[in-house]
Amino acid sequence: MQLCDKTDNPEIIVECLRILCNLGRNPQIQKLLILEGIIDKLLDYISSDIEEEILGYSIGLLINLSTNKQAYEEIKGEKLNKIIELLKKSDFENLELTKNIVKIFSNIYITSGNIQWTTIQRDEINQAITNIGSECDSCLDVANEEEKNILNDLHSVIKIFINFIAESTLQKEKGFLCPVKGCGRKFESKSEMESHFSRRHKN
Length: 203
Fold this sequence. Notes:
Number of helices: 11
Structural class: mainly alpha
Order of helices and strands: HHHHHHHHHHEEH
Shape: globular
Largest sheet: 2 strands, antiparallel
Helix content: over 70%
Strand content: under 5%
């Protein structure tokens, strides 16, 4: 992490990120990396004009970190916009990279059950992923075998993300009802309901 901060040498940065990608599969190391501020550094990389290999490893490390609940607290607000912009710019010249960018969003949903986004962010994400899904379907007929495998993987990731959005929207409409008989309070998120329960009803 510190070595990445202290050098502009692309080869050294790539090697650092490659090692961190391997280490970043471990939940304890994920927490340490997040506490060290690695997410801000990765978001700086993906929002700048960098070499494709650095971009690829940055996205790979973000995929690993996005399976950790602590990352959810870091990737929101303006920070989320950096990934959204990358999603909007993604194309089918690099199918693997496009799939991995979509996977960051699906990982956040699977891990946290939510993404803290504005209405504009939500609409931009939905539109970008819908466009990718449509292009994915239209490319299947002309793709070679290797491309078809990646397209099918991409389609699966998109499906997971869309299903979680639908599920989250439905749950938000239903709300989370306080389990204490006679209370009747309803909350938008499970954490809000649990916080209310601890404050008002727990002995």
